[in-house]
Write a structure and sequence with these properties.
Helix content is about 10%, strand content about 65%. With about 180 residues, it is mainly beta. The longest helix is centred in the first third of the chain and has 15 residues.
Length: about 180
């Protein structure tokens, strides 16, 4: 894990030294962590690591759209036994940049999409296909660096008439990204 984080920051440092001309296309790679905030009596999920990639197209100085793929992994407990949680998401994203320029640009946005989540405990695996709503806010520093908080809300179909939050895969996230 330490090697992954150090490698990520070494690549960011090397890339930030290159000149880049301004255009409407942004590619972002980043890492983060998530904290599960919905308690369920027999399931607990520890903070884990997430990695993501995102493409955005700027429709204007204030508004952009794109897509994000996100992978997260963490450990926890299921029925008092050790468990491993994995989640892969694909979302369409859109951000409103509150300031059109400057060294520190706040933004607010949302992602909508789907996810595949699984956890394994005591040699038993549980699989979920989920809908995801991901409101987010953050800051972009200069042209290349971004920090964001998001509330990853994962929904499952409980019955024909009920859709509810899926506790093991709903979390608050913190992400740090580098924009190419």
């Amino acid at each position: 894990m330490k090697k992954l984080v150090l490698s990520f920051f070494a690549i960011l440092a090397a890339l930030s030294m290159q000149a880049q001309e301004e255009d409407a296309h942004d590619f972002e790679l980043g890492i983060g962590t998530g904290l599960n905030f919905i308690a369920k009596e027999n399931i607990s999920r520890n903070p884990g690591v997430m990695v993501y990639g995102e493409y955005r197209y700027g429709l204007s100085d204030y508004f952009d759209i794109g897509a994000q793929v996100n992978y997260s992994n963490s450990k926890g407990k299921y029925d008092a036994k050790d468990a491993i949680f994995n989640q892969v998401e694909l979302m369409l994203v859109s951000d409103w940049n509150i300031l059109s320029s400057g060294k520190c640009r706040p933004f607010i946005g949302v992602g909508l999409g789907g996810a595949y989540g699984k956890y394994a405990a005591n040699q038993v695996k549980y699989n979920y296909f989920l809908g995801v709503v991901d409101p987010r806010l953050g800051l972009q520093f200069g042209r290349h660096y971004k920090v964001a908080f998001d509330a990853n809300l994962a929904f499952e179909r409980a019955s024909q008439k009920e859709i509810r939050l899926c506790a093991p895969f709903t979390f608050i996230g913190f992400k740090i990204g580098y924009i190419f």
